[in-house]
Q: What sequence folds into this?
């Protein structure tokens, strides 16, 4: 069984076959070297021995070249036949010294066994191997004490390597269900995406979430919640084809990485999982590599599709919209008709929860498909040359909405707007921003343009010039999604920026260990030294919010404080919620920062 519930370390078939190939090559070569000691005394047994070592070398080379195409079960056959091969070589050895030398090669088999198989399978293979060692050496009449010593060494290797392998594997495993965790998911996704792009095959992913899981915990306590998650993991693993990996990201979130599956096929699979989960209801968001440009945006598409599934009544599967010509035309029409919308998500000061600013996020409600996630339509706009128009629309609408908010609050707020890499290399972008500011009257000093490091890196020097020009205009720059796969500390030095937005994935981990909290403290310190104001994104729990407040994180944003909403809803909520004002030093510093000569 390829799933981790069997406790097999998560090692790709390619790695398994490459390692086995190397072990065979070195085992065969070691056997040949031992045989070379009796080169002069050619006799039939020596010839067979040489043939066996040659066979081992050739098998090793074949595994290295073609092993990854072999079926998974063939690894069992190769490892088991390795034990038989060595036992035969021990029997055929010229003398007992050579036999002992050959028997030492068993150690290589022991390593392979622990590296590749789950506990039960490893026990069977180890038993076969030890029987082969003892039987072959006993047949030669080697003293039982010496045989015992060799077996002892083998067992020591088995235990030590086993522990090391389990520890390494544990870092990608979820301790509750034994499934791969978020890291295991990321690793498998990256590998599968690379394989799919190389071979031109499809790749689908799904994010699966148990509906109303909190109610299960509330009713039956955490033990009931844990039992449900374990039950679902066991049930779902049995239903999945071998190449589909089920992972648990934490809480009630599961995911599937499904090589060779289209979005439609994966939707059917999710349907089976949902049926198997009954009486509990489950929602799923599906995306296919086709619709996304990278693993990160693929996950965003699936995440947004899951959000849509939840928002449209739960207990259903939603697929991220495909990148087709029709959709691109519909996006153009929606832009021309001004039917896209903008929502604002508060950015607050964690200590007081006072609103300091808002991030503008684009929304598109398709007349037939419903809400299309930004993780899908923004890349579509980029690929179809519509992102400049979309950016202009969002900026203008955001400036007007922020002015409504400012008027309602009776004080200044900071407005942040996202820009994609394509906009940064567009020569007209800075002029567009200046024109919108002029038209709407929104002050440049209260505007922040958010860019991700990867977009700037891809767009290179042209993007850097644009950022510098924006700052000359008085507009501030934020590095968005810092702390994800692309993050590099060198960017903090080279990117002209004023704010550092910590990605939700980073924020989510700050309470997981004291080391994570220490990283946060160091990052806050570093940002302060560099004159960057940190905004922690994706704050979902009171625990995260309290820690951020305790650590003195200047600003934060996330569902815990407020979800993105239309400006009028936001104004209404703020009016009733009596949200406190931020303490003056932060606002002053923000406004000072954004107006200081950059
Ligand atoms: P982003 O700029 O990092 O925006 C934050 C995303 O996190 C938003 O997703 C927001 O709804 C979501 N979010 C907010 N609080 C939480 C939380 O507590 N937990 C979690 N899990 N998520 C939270 P959204 O609106 O789906 O936008 C996704 C991405 O699409 C944005 O990421 C941004 O990169 C892009 N985007 C959105 N609007 C625009 C736009 O007008 N122009 C451009 N170029 N990109 C945009
Ligand atoms: Mg952003
Ligand atoms: Mg972000």
A:
């Amino acid at each position: 069984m390829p799933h981790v519930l069997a406790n097999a370390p998560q090692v790709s078939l390619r790695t398994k076959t490459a390692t086995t190939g190397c072990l065979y090559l070195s085992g065969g070569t070691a056997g040949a070297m031992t045989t070379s000691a009796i080169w002069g005394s050619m006799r039939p047994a020596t010839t067979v021995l040489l043939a066996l070592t040659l066979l081992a070398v050739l098998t090793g080379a074949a595994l290295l070249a073609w092993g990854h195409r072999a079926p998974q079960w063939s690894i069992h056959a190769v490892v088991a036949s390795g034990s038989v091969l060595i036992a035969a070589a021990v029997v055929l050895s010229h003398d007992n010294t050579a036999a002992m030398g050959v028997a030492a090669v068993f150690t290589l088999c022991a390593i392979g066994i622990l590296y590749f198989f789950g506990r039960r399978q490893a026990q069977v293979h180890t038993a076969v191997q030890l029987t082969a060692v003892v039987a072959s050496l006993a047949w030669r009449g080697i003293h039982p004490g010496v045989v015992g010593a060799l077996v002892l060494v083998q067992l020591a290797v088995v235990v030590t390597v086993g522990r090391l392998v389990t520890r390494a594997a544990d870092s990608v495993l979820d301790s509750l269900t034994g499934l791969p965790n978020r890291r295991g998911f990321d690793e498998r996704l990256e590998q599968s995406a690379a394989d799919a792009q190389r071979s031109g095959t499809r790749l689908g992913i799904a994010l699966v979430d148990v509906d109303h899981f909190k109610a299960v915990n509330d009713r039956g306590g955490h033990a009931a919640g844990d039992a449900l998650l374990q039950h679902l993991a066991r049930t779902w693993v049995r239903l999945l084809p071998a190449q589909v990996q089920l992972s648990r990201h934490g809480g009630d979130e599961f995911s599937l990485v499904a090589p060779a599956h289209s979005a439609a096929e994966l939707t059917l699979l999710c349907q089976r999982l949902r049926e198997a989960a009954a009486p509990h209801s489950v929602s799923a968001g599906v995306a296919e590599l086709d619709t996304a440009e990278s693993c990160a945006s693929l996950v965003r598409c699936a995440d947004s599709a899951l959000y849509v599934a939840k928002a449209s009544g739960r207990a259903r599967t939603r697929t991220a919209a495909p990148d087709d010509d029709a959709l691109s035309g519909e996006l153009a029409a929606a832009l021309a008709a001004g039917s896209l919308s903008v929502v604002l998500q508060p950015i607050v000061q964690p200590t007081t929860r006072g609103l300091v600013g808002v991030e503008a996020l684009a929304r598109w409600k398709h007349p037939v498909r419903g809400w299309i996630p930004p993780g899908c339509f923004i890349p579509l706009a980029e690929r179809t040359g519509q992102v400049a128009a979309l950016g202009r629309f969002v900026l203008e609408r955001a400036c007007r909405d922020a002015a409504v908010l400012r008027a309602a609050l009776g004080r200044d707020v900071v407005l942040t707007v996202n820009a994609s890499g394509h906009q940064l290399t567009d020569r007209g972008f800075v002029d567009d921003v200046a024109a919108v500011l002029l038209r709407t009257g929104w002050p440049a000093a209260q505007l922040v343009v958010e860019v991700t490091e990867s977009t700037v890196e891809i767009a290179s020097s042209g993007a850097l010039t644009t950022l510098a020009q924006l700052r000359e205009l008085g507009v501030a720059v934020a590095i968005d999604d810092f702390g994800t796969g692309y993050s590099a500390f060198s960017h903090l030095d080279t990117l002209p920026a004023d704010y550092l937005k910590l990605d939700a994935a980073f924020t989510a981990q700050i309470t997981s260990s004291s080391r994570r909290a220490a990283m946060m403290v160091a990052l806050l310190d570093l940002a302060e030294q560099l004159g960057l104001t940190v905004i922690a994104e994706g704050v979902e729990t009171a625990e995260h919010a309290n820690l951020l407040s305790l650590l003195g994180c200047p600003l934060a944003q996330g569902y815990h404080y407020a979800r993105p909403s239309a400006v009028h809803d936001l104004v209404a909520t703020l009016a009733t919620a009596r949200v406190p004002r931020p303490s003056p030093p932060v606002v002053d510093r923000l406004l000072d920062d954004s107006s200081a000569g950059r």
Observations:
- Residues 13-170 form one domain.
- The longest strand covers residues 354-366.
